[in-house]
């Protein structure tokens, strides 16, 4: 079993390359946080809903997971790995993405 100490992590630079190649990103923050600013193309599934919505995460491709800074995304990655979904936590999360000068979007989806 994977433990929090072994949660796969990646950087916002790698996330940028992942998205440029057609990859997907899962945002596990709360809806109000997502509405304030999110990574373009990010799919919102709040961490509190992830167990019930695992079927909304297609298992055919790796998914990069973000939250605001990295704690919730690490928890989400653990849940996804237990469900045999290839996932990686993005260190720095949406804050790191924004601080790197990359664009964000606002509003709900």
What attributes characterize this protein structure?
109 residues; alpha/beta; Oxidized Rhodanese, domain 1; five-stranded parallel beta sheet; 4 helices; globular; Rhodanese-like domain-containing protein; Rhodanese-like_dom_sf
Q: Overall pLDDT, averaged?
A: 92
What is the total number of structural domains?
Answer: 1
Largest sheet features: 5 strands, parallel
Q: And the CATH topology?
A: Oxidized Rhodanese, domain 1
General form = globular
CATH homology group: Rhodanese-like domain
Stretches with pLDDT under 50, minimum 5 residues: none
Based on CA atoms alone, the radius of gyration comes out at 13 Å
Structural class: alpha/beta
Number of strands: 5
Quaternary organisation = single chain
Protein name: Rhodanese-like domain-containing protein
Organism: Actinomycetospora rhizophila
Pfam families: Rhodanese
Domain Rhodanese: 19-106
